[in-house]
Structures are given as C-alpha cells and as structure tokens.
Amino acid sequence: MTAPARIAGLVAVLVVPLAACGAPSDAADPSATPAAFTTRTVARSDLVSTTTTSGEVGHGTTTSLAARVPGTVTWLAPVGSTVATGQPVYAIDARPVVRLPGAAPAWRDLGPASVDGVDVRQLEQALTDLGHAAGLDLTVDDDWTSVTTAAVRRWQKALGVARTGTVRLGDVLFTPEDMRVDEHLADLGALVEPGAPVLSVGSTQRLVTVTLRTSQAALAPVGGAATLTLPDGTSTDGTITATGVVTVDEQPQLRVTIAPADALVDGLVEGTPVEVGLDQTVASDVLLVPVTALVALADGGYGVQKVLADGTSRYVTVTAGAFAGTSVEISGEDVAEGDDVVVTP
Fold first, then answer.
1. How does residue 16 score in pLDDT terms, banded at 50, 70 and 90?
2. Do 275 and 289 reside in the same domain of the chain?
3. Which domain range does residue 90 map to?
4. Please, which residues have CB within 8 angstroms of residue 127's CB and are 6 or more apart in sequence?
5. SS3 state at 146
6. Residue 272: how many CA atoms within 13 Å on its side-chain side?
7. Do 217 and 187 fall within a single domain?
8. pLDDT at residue number 316
9. Looking at the structure, do residues 114 and 88 belong to the same domain, yes or no?
C-alpha cells in the first residue's frame, strides 16, 4: 500500500496552495500562539512491526525414540513423566535403556577396544556425576581405560543387569537435557526391530507453540523475542527456541516454539490458548512520529506541524518512510530528534 493510501482517512488532504510559512492559506496561522496543542516528541529508534497470532501451551515439538536392538518391549516410562540423568526410558527384553547427558548421540558399542571418542567422555562424565566412579581416580577424557571398565561394572550392578564392563549400542540414550515422555508409540509386549518407534519425548519445560505460514519465517528467527498474553490478561516475554516445517492439512507450515521468560504459564493446562506478539524490525535507527502527526500538503508532499521554542508552530516538509502500527518513519532538513510535533486527537 502506498504512503498516501495508508494515511487516507487519518488526516485531511489540503488542496489549497501553501503559504510562505508552509501552512495552507485557509488554515489558522500556525505562527500564532494556539489555544492548545496535543503534541508528541520526535524519537529516534527502530521501527518495529508487531504481528499478533494465536498459540497454545504445551511442551514443544516432540521427537520419537527408536529401538536400537531387536526384542520385546518390557517396560515404558509413563506418559507425562520426566526422565532425568541415570533413569531408564524404556526396556527391551528387560534390559533398560538409560538416559545420560550428552550432546553427541550413541552410535556404537563401547568397551576396552573402543577408540577414543566424545561418547567415551560423555559416558565417563555421567558415571562420575552419578557417583559410580567414586574412589576410582577416573579421568574424564576420550580414552577408555581399565578404570572406565570398573566404573561401568559398578553402574551395571546398580541397574541390576549383567556386569559386563561394556556398553552395547542401545543401552544408553544421550540427550542434552532431561526429557518428558509425551506418548507411547509401541505397546508393552510388542516385538520391535531396530528403527521401530517406541515412544515420543519432548521438553520438560512448559512452552508455547505457534503455527505460521512458511512465508512468515522472518517473523520468527531462533533467539528472537516474543510477547505472550495469557487468558487472564497478564503478559510475559518469551524467546524463540526452535522452528521447523510441519505439514498441516497437506500444506507446509512453520511450527515455532517459544520459551517463556518466567513460570507464569506453568499452571496452565495443555492446549491453553495464548496470544503471541512477534516483532519484526522494519527500519533501524530512524526518526519516528505517530501517523496522526502527518499532514498531506497541497503540492503532494507531507509535512508535520513543528512546535517552536516560543510556543508557536510552523509546518515543515518531511519525507514519509516505512509505516508500522501507529508510527511512521520521517526525514527532513527541518525536523530532528527531540522536536515536538502536533498530532490530531
């Protein structure tokens, strides 16, 4: 939409020639002391456009966990439960799959013959944190040693499994954070093959999710800010933590996950609607005034009624730039940050 069209209806178009002072000839003399002004100060800031949409409270995007070994599902962590460090997620043939902290996924069997790797370091760190390396003088590094084997045997004894001193692929699940069980994807007693989904997990934190058009990706950069308005009218800030494309009604959509800055949403039930405001910077470090400060001049340009030091005013020509909400970017030789301009009530 053009700038003239955007302010149509907001200000009266002045169709008479301008006087030397810049005001229309049939207008009240702006150099005279007015009875009253409603003014706003010209500010220098970023021009931000806010898009408001609807989101809902949940635990964010879920991830399915697949079996790594064949066998029968003999135990599943309850839906809604939190799986912390050292706790089992599920069991195959009565052998628990234990969650341990780590950014790198498990990808191989581990034991004395293993070459150095970050997965060895993650395992040693977890065994140390869980107390299974106490008194063993275990050095946490990428190297598997006899001390690592001893710590693994202690851990296996605590789990109630065979004390082999080795860790087969499928015995551990490395994840960076604790996780919440969202859904069982396999039944107890089900026979599964490697790659078969067993359950889905998500964040333990209450999050807000929003679905946008893929063309709106610029509104939701990871790390960007959001404003969350709860059903009772209270508001809190949020940070965009993840985005991903999902299919909704056979159409690609952008799923946005937002982490609230505080615990205000923790008491809300799953699916509670939340109003989400997403900000996008339209112009940076520009002069801003309310749209109602603009007047359309007879020669086709735009102006503002600038208040002078003696309390009088005069019209000065400005160039209108980007619009966002109730503000507009302006520039001009006769207007500066800190000037007061008249706005229509």
1. very low
2. no
3. 65-100+176-202
4. 133, 138, 148, 151, 152, 154, 155
5. helix
6. 18
7. no
8. 94
9. no
What string of H, E and C letters represents the secondary structure of 4-28? HHHHECCECECCCCECCCCCECCCC
Q: What gap in Å lies between CA 190 and CA 318, rounded to an integer?
A: 73
What does the pLDDT look like over 279-314, one tens digit per residue? 888 899 999 999 999 999 888 899 999 999 998 999
Q: Who's near 278: CB < 8 A, 6+ residues apart?
A: 50, 51, 52, 53, 210, 219, 220, 224, 226
3-state secondary structure of 158: helix
The partner residues of 54 in beta bridges, in order of sequence, read 275
For residues 344 and 38, the answer to whether their CB atoms sit within 8 Å is: yes
Residue 300: predicted pLDDT: 82
CA proximity to 275, closest of 234, 326, 325: 234
Instruction: Report how far residue 182's alpha carbon sits from residue 79's, in angstroms, rounded to the nearest whole number.
Output: 6
**Cα dist from 102 to 75, 118, 123, 172, 184, whole Å:** 23, 9, 8, 11, 23
Are 86 and 191 found together in one domain?
yes
Tell me which H or E stretch contains 237: strand 235-248
Taking the C-alpha atoms of residue 174 and residue 105, their distance in angstroms, rounded to an integer, is 5
Task: List Cβ neighbours of 4 (8 Å cut-off, separation of 6 or more).
Answer: 296
In whole angstroms, give the CA distance from residue 42 to residue 19.
24
Q: Is-contact 192 186, C-beta < 8 A?
A: yes
Q: Kindly state whether residues 278 and 289 are assigned to the same domain.
A: no
Number of domains in the chain: 4
Rg (CA), the chain: 32
Predicted TM-score (pTM) of the model is 0.65
Query: Considering only 101-105, 169-173, 212-216, 295-299, which range has the smallest mean pLDDT?
Result: 295-299
User: For residue 31, what pLDDT is reported?
Assistant: 52
Tell me how far apart the alpha carbons of residues 4 and 6 are, in angstroms, rounded to a whole number: 5
The maximal CA–CA distance of the chain, rounded, in angstroms, is: 97
